[in-house]
Amino acid sequence: MVGTAKKEDMEAFYASIEAETTPLSHLREPPRTRPSKKTLKAWQLLRDLVSKKFSLLHHPATHGLMRDTLKHLLNLRRGERVSSRTMAILQQLSKSFDHWSLDYDNANNKIKSVDKSISKAEKANQGLEANVRKFKEIVTDEKALCTKLATLEQKKRELEDQIKTMKAEIAEFTKRRDKVAKRKREVFENGKVLRSKCDGLRNKLPRLKAGTEWAFVTETNIEAEWSKLAKRVLQSTSFVEDWI
Fold first, then answer.
1. In this structure, is residue 233 part of a structural domain?
2. How many domains does the chain have?
3. Exposure letters 133-166 (e unless 16+ CB within 10 A, then b)
4. Could you give the CA distance from residue 64 to residue 67 in angstroms, rounded to a whole number?
5. Which domain holds residue 57?
6. Does 64 map to a domain?
7. What is the top-level taxon of the source organism (predicted)?
8. pLDDT tens per residue across span 95-136
9. CB 3.0–4.6 Å: which of 35, 59, 121, 194 could bond 80 by disulfide?
10. Which pLDDT score, from 0 to 100, does residue 177 have?
11. Is residue 187 included in any domain, yes or no?
12. Residue 53 lies inside a defined structural domain of this protein
């Protein structure tokens, strides 16, 4: 029990000391006076800047404004200085801003690099898609051309067969024509012979005509004389009828 009571007395003793003890650092801080217009404007600007997104502070003009504002506030005149706690926060803000600016630059460059790579990949993909479409179009054209060529080849074979048939017919008709031409020549040559004979006979025609006329006269005379003689014979042999 005694040990426990002593322990509680000691804890109560130090608890009272902590309650009564206050930081003495504020005694070293100079009395705060109203800041200059430039400093007041810097504080207002700082509050406005820290209220923005960090990405907006990454712009060169805004980034420089932030750096200048922090530099001014971290180097205030003695009468414009603020509490150590506020200064510590400003120092942390300045350090973090510098560090995060570098990290943000790296991240932003990384994003740009990735975006550039993605853009290249998209362009390459678009090029590939266009290539695929073009290839399909060419395949379609090729199939159409192959079909057309196959049709033409079939027609060519049919025409070749027709040409073979026509060549055979031409050869046959050529032989027949040659035979006809030979026969025509033979007939022509025979015609020339016949014409020569006709010409020879035509030259003899007057004499032959005269001979023919003489022959006709002779035949007529013979018929007349024969008729007369036959009449005499019949008259002289009429007694034969009595015998019959």
1. no
2. 1
3. eeeeeeeeeeeeeeeeeeeeeeeeeeeeeeeeee
4. 5
5. 28-119
6. yes
7. Eukaryota
8. 988 898 888 888 888 988 888 888 888 888 898 899 999 999
9. 35
10. 93
11. no
12. yes
